[in-house]
Amino acid sequence: MTENEIIRKIKDISIDTDHRPSFIAKYILQNLMIVPEITIKEMAECTYTSIATINRFTKYLNLDGYKELIHIIKYFNHNLAGEESIT
């Protein structure tokens, strides 16, 4: 999956209130710029969940773990910043 597909999947999860970790997805989308700077423990505290829940969320996205999620978000932010500077 590309980083855009992952972000799109996170957006879909955030909209689906029946999905249990939708609040994690909402937090990620609302804080795209700061999420790459926080640890998995801080993410768990911010979303009122456990580290295991964050790991399950990343597995649901078919990622290897939290670090891969962070790399994808950093790459997405980098591309987004590049597009803004072009326009």
Automatic annotation (TrEMBL):
Lineage: superkingdom: Bacteria
Domain HTH rpiR-type: from-to ranges: 4-80
One function term, GO molecular function aspect: DNA-binding transcription factor activity
Cross-referenced SUPFAM superfamilies: Homeodomain-like
Pfam families in the record: HTH_6
Name of the protein: GntR family transcriptional regulator
Source species: Spiroplasma phoeniceum P40
